[in-house]
């Protein structure tokens, strides 16, 4: 491996003699066992701890990253971006997942008349390893965006970085291991060739690949994928497009934002981004204006050179081999009909660490290039990718033509739609969405706040159809689920409750409160129990409360909610939904709280919301209601002295008909400490 800027040797790589079968077996046994000792929340907290540790050591990684040709900003995108993914997944994992190792998907489906047989779906982690083959352009981010969701799911990672920049990934993995934060077997690193890795994977395992479409096809065609059931996802070549709306003429904020985006995508990481803009699809009359504006911005702002030199904004390509490949691709595109409208294939003048401006014999430096095409249908512009600081500008006649040209990329990771006209945005976005994994809408409102065309974010899906590989990474908790198996389970409500840790309607309960509703004598109100005492299925049934017309009228007058169903008997009786004047739904929910709440200080610290509220049966004056509250889900917070409890709440009338259903969310002490001595 060589320094991309100087050609100086950095390291040698050789994987001869590595027993990949033992690597995989170690992950399946030691890694699975150690990760399985932690819950989803505990693993998410480990990610935060790791991210904090790595955040304090970024400068060490920057120094190493410079050797790949990356500038400080490029390195921040890669290194800080990767660490940021860990922080994001840690936060989302704790907010959006249960503190367990089973995740439910959807609600219970009743499968028998009496409710004794039911079913639902659950997610549990796959029992193997997550083998991850990463590209050379983002040796840190590319690895950590795969590692983070696998780790939260509880699946050990085998990371295989691309060799040209693998020394950066090696430094990161070394820090991760030396931190002592990760359970043993959480991550393993393969440096060098791993051609036989798929030979030792099976249906228990997952392979995530980022790289060329040809390599992805080869891997996808492997017997163990086709017949052996290895889960496979790929993110590959992509002829990403940016479409300039017809309203975005010279002088508009949109035109300026478009030019800035194109320049950034051409020069960030020296254009070595799977998400970089390769095709700029602009109104035919604006082709020359776009070329001129992009060229002027490059001239004004881009300084090519060794990224360790002061003022350099674009470094070298990752290797001399990469430089040869990009030049060859450009030459092929020119031979096919493309013309260089800006830049040159000649060796550029670069800034050295000594501050000199000169051409150099060593180093993988290349000028940014803009190509134009007389024939916008030319197959080369829509199929040949020069993976460097190279982009093309082609003209369209109308919006339908722009959509058609974008689709000729045969599937892409991302496209930008730059317009301030809502109708144009709608036509273009809906027209190209099915051909792209992400559509970035850019206008004057987002020009300053947007993360950019080429920056995937961990909250949203990264991937794309067709040529882009057909895979899907990131997307928040979705990517955690990619490392889990969805299974349909069937059984009684008691058995579903036992497996999921969530109370299901029809499962056993210990009810306190109203004896007429089956309360157990001496049972303690569940609001008097700390998390240490509270059990799933602990419940409270209130006595009946009669509803009067006077109370309905008073609530209407006090709140201003004088909807006719609560105030006008004739109008209410004419409505097919109401038998006459009925109680407000929110009045019933308020009364329900009064029926189940325990006023004295205790382990319940706060009510922080309702979820899934539905009003089902109207309640006229003269009817009565009762509420039943059941501990449905208990989620202790690992870092706090309290946890969250979701209570299944059902309001019934005097005839047992369901009036309303919802979940009450409370914060409850782990131990009954705060008010233990309350007098």
UniProtKB/TrEMBL annotation:
Domain (MaoC-like): give its ranges.
543-634
Which parts of the sequence belong to the Aldehyde dehydrogenase domain?
6-475
Q: Name one Pfam family in it.
A: MaoC_dehydratas
Q: Which InterPro entries match?
A: Ald_DH/histidinol_DH, Ald_DH_C, Ald_DH_N, Aldehyde_DH_dom, HotDog_dom_sf, MaoC-like_dom, PaaN-DH
Q: What GO annotations for molecular function exist for this entry?
A: hydrolase activity; oxidoreductase activity
* Superkingdom, taxonomy of origin: Bacteria
Q: Does the keyword Hydrolase apply?
A: yes
Q: Which UniProt keywords apply?
A: Hydrolase, Oxidoreductase
Identify the SUPFAM superfamilies for this entry: ALDH-like, Thioesterase/thiol ester dehydrase-isomerase
Q: Does the keyword Zinc apply?
A: no
CDD domains (UniProt xref): ALDH_MaoC-N
Enzyme Commission number, as recorded: 1.2.1.91, 3.3.2.12
Its family remark reads: Belongs to the aldehyde dehydrogenase family.
For this entry, the protein name equals: Oxepin-CoA hydrolase/3-oxo-5,6-dehydrosuberyl-CoA semialdehyde dehydrogenase
The species this protein was found in: Paeniglutamicibacter sulfureus
């Amino acid at each position: 491996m060589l320094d991309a800027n100087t050609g100086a040797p950095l390291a040698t790589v050789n994987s001869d003699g590595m027993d990949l079968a033992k690597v995989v077996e170690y992950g399946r046994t030691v890694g699975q066992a150690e990760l399985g000792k932690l819950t989803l929340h505990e693993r998410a907290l480990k990610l935060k701890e790791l991210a904090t540790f790595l955040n304090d050591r970024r400068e060490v990684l920057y120094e190493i990253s410079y050797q790949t040709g990356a500038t400080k900003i490029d390195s921040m995108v890669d290194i800080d971006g990767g660490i940021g993914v860990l922080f994001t997944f840690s936060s989302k994992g704790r907010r959006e997942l249960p503190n367990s190792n089973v995740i439910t998907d959807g609600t219970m489906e009743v499968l028998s008349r009496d409710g004794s047989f039911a079913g639902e779906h659950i997610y549990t982690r796959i029992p193997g390893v997550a083998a991850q083959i990463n590209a050379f352009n983002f040796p840190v981010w590319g690895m950590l965006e795969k590692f983070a969701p696998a780790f939260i799911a509880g699946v050990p990672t085998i990371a295989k970085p691309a060799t040209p920049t693998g020394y950066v990934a090696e430094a990161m993995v070394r820090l991760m291991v030396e931190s002592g934060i990760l359970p043993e077997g959480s991550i393993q690193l393969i440096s060098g060739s791993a051609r036989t890795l798929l030979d030792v994977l099976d249906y228990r395992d997952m392979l995530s690949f980022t790289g060329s479409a040809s390599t992805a096809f080869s891997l996808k065609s492997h017997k163990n994928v086709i017949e052996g059931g290895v889960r496979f996802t790929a993110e590959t070549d992509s002829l990403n497009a940016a479409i300039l709306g017809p309203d975005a003429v010279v002088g508009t904020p949109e035109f300026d934002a478009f030019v800035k985006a194109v320049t950034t995508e051409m020069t960030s990481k020296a254009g070595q981004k799977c998400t970089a803009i390769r095709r700029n699809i602009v109104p035919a009359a604006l082709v020359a204006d776009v070329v001129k504006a992009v060229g002027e911005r490059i001239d004004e702002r881009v300084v090519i050179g060794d990224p360790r030199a002061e003022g350099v904004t674009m470094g070298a390509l990752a290797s001399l081999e990469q430089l040869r490949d990009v030049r060859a691709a450009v030459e092929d595109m020119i031979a096919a009909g493309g013309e260089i409208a800006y830049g040159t294939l000649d060796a550029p003048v670069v800034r050295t660490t000594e501050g000199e401006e000169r051409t150099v014999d060593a180093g993988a430096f290349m000028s940014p290039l803009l190509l134009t095409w007389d024939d916008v249908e030319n197959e080369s512009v829509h199929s040949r990718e020069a993976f460097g600081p190279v982009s093309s500008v082609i003209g369209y006649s109308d919006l339908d033509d722009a959509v058609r040209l974008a689709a000729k990329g045969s599937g892409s990771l991302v496209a930008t739609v730059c317009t301030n006209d809502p109708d144009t945005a709608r036509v273009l976005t809906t027209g190209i969405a099915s051909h792209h994994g992400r559509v970035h809408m850019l206008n004057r409102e987002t020009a300053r706040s947007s993360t950019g065309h080429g920056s995937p974010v961990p909250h949203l899906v990264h991937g794309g159809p067709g040529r882009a590989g057909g895979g899907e990474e990131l997307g928040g908790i979705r990517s955690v689920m990619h490392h889990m198996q969805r299974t349909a389970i069937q059984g009684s409500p008691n058995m579903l409750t036992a497996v999921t840790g969530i109370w299901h309607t029809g499962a056993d309960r210990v009810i306190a409160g109203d004896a007429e509703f089956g309360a157990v004598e001496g049972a303690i109100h569940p609001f008097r129990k700390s998390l240490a005492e509270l059990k799933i299925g602990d419940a409270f049934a209130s006595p009946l409360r009669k509803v009067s017309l006077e109370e309905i009228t008073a609530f209407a007058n006090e709140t201003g909610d004088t909807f006719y169903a609560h105030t006008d008997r004739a109008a209410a009786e004419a409505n097919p939904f109401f038998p006459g004047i009925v109680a407000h739904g929110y009045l019933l929910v308020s009364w329900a709280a009064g029926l189940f709440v325990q006023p004295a200080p205790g382990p319940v610290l706060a009510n922080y919301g309702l979820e899934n509220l539905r009003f089902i049966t109207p309640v006229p004056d003269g009817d009565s209601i009762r509420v039943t509250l059941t501990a449905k889900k208990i989620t202790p917070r690992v870092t706090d002295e309290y946890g969250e409890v979701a209570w299944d709440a059902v309001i019934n009338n005097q005839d047992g008909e369901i009036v309303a259903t919802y979940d009450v969310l409370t914060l409850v002490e782990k131990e009954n400490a705060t008010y233990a001595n309350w007098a």
